[in-house]
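Entry 14. Two folds queued back to back today. First construct below, sequence then structure tokens.
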Amino acid sequence: MNPFDPKHWDPCNEALERVHEFLNQRELTPQDQADIRRHLTDCPPCGDRFDFEEKLLERLKKSDPCQCPERLRARIKALLDLT
């Protein structure tokens, strides 16, 4: 599999778009899960990205929650309300 071949990008984009669903065990069909697993195994760059995302999620789950300043919360909320 050549990661520089544009024909390779569509499956990568699709798999990477669903990585968070996969990591958070959201509603994916068994076939979708198998397809993502297969792609991550067959495509080292995507597999590396998945490994990074998985480790990051584990660290976030283990970390202590922090309090962010109210001003930052308001700014984030305002940005989210724009979408």
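Second construct, same run, same settings:
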Amino acid sequence: MKRPASADPERPFGVANTSSFISRSPAETRTFACTLARSAPDGTVFALCGDLGSGKTCFAQGLALALGIDQPVTSPTFALIREYRGTPRRFAHIDLYRLDSASDLDALGIDDYLEPDGLAAFEWADRMPAIFPDGTVWVRIESLDRAEERRIAVKKTV
């Protein structure tokens, strides 16, 4: 996997807490996410943003891979929340696309996922950015000109 110039395995977000990566395939997207997850401490929240089909679920699959999750990780669009048990950490995969308000979030017990025991990934996070705590890792995935090519921009809030 080609690393972004600012990436360092011990400090994946670089000095300025940002990095960018060009992925040329779903496998590279998963590998990049896996690398980030391996160095992320328990309690890390990943806020995933991007158009439909940009690769948010593919990125979440890479996070799960780093946690030793061997079951299929699929989009939580209709379930809203999918939880997986890793070795030894847990992974929560949440979709905000169909939610409209804070009351929807309260009904799901979303606070438990904003301070996870393990890691959490929220798809469509840009629909409700105000809910995310400091320290959230924001991931924006953009489709580029070539069919499977994506720009993945990562920024950790302080």
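Quick look at the second one. The chain is about 25% helix and 30% strand. Residues 26-39 form the longest helix (14 residues).
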